[in-house]
Amino acid sequence: MPSHQIYRGAVLSFKDDPATAGDDAIVFFEDGALLLEDGLIAACGEANEVLDQAPQNTPVRYYQEHLIIPGLIDTHIHFPQVEVIASFGEQLLDWLNQYTFPTEQKFADVEYASKIANFFLDELLRNGTTTALVFGSVHASAAEAFFKASHRRNTRMICGKVMMDREAPAALCDTAESAYADSRQLIEDWHGKGRQLYAITPRFAITSTPEQLAAAGKLKTEFPDVYVQTHISENRSEVDFVGALFSDAKDYLDVYDQYGLLDKKTVLAHGIHLTERERKRLQETGSSVAFCPTSNLFLGSGLLDLKQLEADGVCVSVATDVGGGTSFSMLRTLHEAYKVLQLQGQSLCPMRSLYMATLGNARSLHLADKIGSLEAGKEADFTILDFNCTPLMALKQQHCKTLREKLFAMIMLADDRAVAATVVAGQCLHERDKHATNQAGSPT
Length: 444
Prior knowledge:
Largest sheet: 9 strands, parallel
Number of helices: 16
Distance between the termini: 14 Å
Strand content: 15-25%
Helix content: 25-40%
């Protein structure tokens, strides 16, 4: 790979949230370019200006009728649930017992875990996702396999071995002691190795004893820079079950709070049925909620009230939640998010959607200094979208008069076919077919 490259096409990025900063948050070049140097963005701007400052003979990949955006970021997804996706007919707790737990038992086999980890990462890239916050299975060896697969690709991933010592099949239960020891070893081996990061991962309060949650809290105290990921208030039956198991807690969130698991690097998936007290405490601790619209609709869990969470100062990201979620595509996820909010009389404009899936999600993960936008010094993770990826998209785009209209049509109608290419640390790891041309117009 050359030390310098140029990618040319329409370029869209964000400096801030368009919902609060308006158009000043948007960076758009109709004919733009990125200059890459050793896996980083060296320059982003109007194509002529970037071409002028590039070293002589820098190769140029020119994507006409395409849009270059920051790499998409997914803040909640399960790599052992690839095979569980689109499993019929249950709500959360029955769905876990009927589909998820039997499937996750396969991940005791390291060869199998490695096979699925590679498939999973390639599927993310095929959908334009360059960073994700990932649940593993209970097996430390499966998390190891995932990190190895990600490290080979140089993708920036955050993953954790699930901690789970009750309310699950015996084959999937660890102990408080083994979960602590395995997680600690994985942190020492992988957190900060290349682009890999670690998340302490109690599955949810139901499947961890107080002793195991205390062990998770001990890890967070010993390694304050690592993430915490878990679930909260996805399903009303789940909330009731947590209340019965932890009768001394004020509410669901307080279970995690009692064990020191809430801070700015804590991401709690779902948060549909939170109380006012819980929302206030989330704001106080800086903990964030991952909005998982496709999963919430598929499992019949409920509708997240984004307006209320944001009014209470809670940081909200957006995520696929595969395999409860039904697509790896963040575009499809944003499509469903729009519908969830429409049902509550709320709106999600296309600029805000793409901000949430890029810089917004990077901010929620405290990685905005590295990823999430296209500016000099950032890691060169980006996605190239094809406005004419299907006959229907091509027809619709002919009638779109503004960039917002074009983006909204993309979010409503597109899927993985819209991703022409995905670039990770300056290296193209997915290319749907050959779209790029050089400046002379011949295929590269």
